[in-house]
Structure formats: C-alpha cells, structure tokens
Amino acid sequence: MPTVLVVHLELQPPHFDEFLALVRAHGARSQQLEEGCLGFQVLLPVDAPNRLILVETYRDDAALEAHLASAHMADYLQRSGPMVRDRQRHRCTL
Questions:
Q1: pLDDT tens track, the chain, 94 positions
Q2: Closest alpha carbon to 80 in 43, 52, 59
Q3: Backbone φ, ψ for residue 66 (5° rounding)
Q4: Sheet hosting strand 51-58, strand order edge to edge
C-alpha cells in the first residue's frame, strides 16, 4: 500500500526563493535516486505566503524510511534547516 508524506512548511521570509529551488531539486533527486519514490510535488498555497506543502508518495513505509535515512535527505535537512520556521509532517495512507 502506498505511503504519502504530507509536509507543511512555514519559511523564513527572506529565504523563500532559495528554499523553493532547493526543495524542487531535492524532489527531483529523490525521484531519480530512489526506486520507491513514486512522486514528489511542491505546492504553493495562494492564500499563505511563505508556506509550502510537500506531497511525497512512496511505494510503502519501507521506501519512506529509506528516503528519510538517505544521505541526500540529510544534506537537504542541513541546508534547509535555517530557512524553515516550522515543519509539520503527516504520514498518510491512500
């Protein structure tokens, strides 16, 4: 059964464009490197400036866990950490 990770992000205002480029590259890299990453969407809410929603779809829980433990995920978290004011993650099933 697919696992979906929905991430709500509130960004530090001066870093929005830099973060957007970083997370889009991270999503593309995740899909290229991880067989279990089925999709990675970056949503821009029109009514909430400085917020993003990520919708990541994985083959199963094991694929999500592999993503979370990957070297490119650690790099992304290190680079993006100072840009993020708040992060909420929700693991979902379809």
A1: 999 999 999 999 899 999 999 999 999 999 999 999 999 999 999 999 899 999 999 999 999 999 999 999 999 999 999 999 999 999 999 8
A2: 52
A3: -65, -40
A4: 37-43, 51-58, 3-11, 84-93
Tell me which H or E stretch contains 6: strand 3-11
Q: Are 67 and 73 in contact (CB under 8 A)?
A: yes
State both tokens at 34.
């991880």
Which residue type occupies 48? A
Using alpha carbons, select from 26, 5, 37 the residue that is nearest to residue 83: 26
Can you give the length of the chain in residues?
94
Element (H, E) at 75: helix 71-80
Q: Which residues of 20-39 are buried (b: 16+ CB within 10 A; e: fewer)?
A: eebbeebbebbeeebebbbe
CA separation, residue 38 to residues 5, 31, 56, 73, 77 (Å): 11, 7, 8, 16, 20
